[in-house]
Amino acid sequence: MRVFITGGNGFIGSAVVRLLVRRGCEVVCLLRPTSRTERLADLSYERVDGDVRDYDSVARGMEGCDATLHLAAPGSWGADDPAALREVIEDGTRNVLDAAGPLGRHRVVFVSSTAAVSCSEEPHVFDERAPFTVRDRSLLYAHAKHRAELLAARAHDRGVSVVTVNPAEVYGPGDVDLGTARNLIDFATSKPVLVCRGGTSIVHVDDVAAGILRALERGQSGERYILGGDNVTIAELARLVQELLGRHERIVMVPRRLARVASRVAMRLRIPLPYEPAVVPYATRYWFVDNSKARRELAVHFRSARDTVASTLAWLRARALI
């Protein structure tokens, strides 16, 4: 199989490329001239220079390929720039789906997020059928992914074979940009450790990569599949990090409203905080999900939160980051 991939140099994307190469697939990566490619350094792939925002380069890269895995998205907590999210996530997804249309049996896997499923102020578990009820407009990434999923649904209706997967919060070795690993560093080094009421599903990067390929092989067009592991509260995640590191720092619960206001002010005035303020609008909500559909229909297995966090901490320790 010859597979075209956007975002193949990213944290999740490079794990997907590694799996594809291991399986003997030909891999074509869409990369910008400025893209960092150190995660792909030891892998064999064909490079297409371009940008997901440019339809012509997307269509050129997809020529002669059997499938497309679309992962391109801004990759850090502080990257919630409305224009970039619209151009990369929404317009980029539109370009991929429009380019796939004339290719007949070409299959697309769109990598969305559980942020596009839903969230709640109190613990509640959502599955793929949940209506998107996120009202806070500051959750720009969630809204952008939701609108991109609407594009995928419309493309399916007009005959494009497109499957959507929704990874939860992804951890694991190789997070060189410290996207989610920064959370663990904060829990490992802060004195005291500050947490808030909220929670998320965490998942290992290799389990997400496997789920994406299973969606390519087994997923039904027009369907979405949640790729998430254990649901944990922010306090439980902090305690797990402390336990695995053998540390016993005090964990302090910050009132939700105070955390949100302080983070908004800090970001607006560029005031440094002992944590990443852009995380707070997400961390003060519950993003709990049910992964049973992916386990049942895609035969994906998800490792425990303990194993996922332990492997990430080992990687961080090996790089003297904690």
SSE inventory with pairings:
Elements: E1 2-6, H1 11-22, E2 26-31, E3 46-49, H2 55-62, E4 67-70, H3 82-100, E5 107-111, E6 125-126, H4 140-157, E7 161-167, E8 169-171, H5 181-189, E9 193-195, E10 199-204, H6 205-218, E11 224-227, E12 231-233, H7 234-245, E13 251-253, H8 256-269, H9 280-283, E14 286-289, H10 292-297, H11 305-318
Parallel strand pairs: 1-2, 1-4, 2-3, 4-5, 5-7, 6-14, 7-11, 8-10, 9-13, 10-14
Antiparallel strand pairs: 10-12
Helix pairs in contact: 1-6, 2-3, 3-4, 7-11
Descriptors:
single chain, 322 residues, alpha/beta, Rossmann fold, 5-stranded mixed sheet, globular
Structure characterization notes:
This protein is α/β, with parallel strands linked by helices. It has a domain at 2-171 and 203-228 and 289-303: Rossmann fold. Helix content is 40%, strand content 18%. Strands 3-2-1-4-5-7-11 form a seven-stranded parallel beta sheet, sandwiched between helices. The radius of gyration is 19 Å and the shape is globular. The chain starts with a strand and ends with a helix.
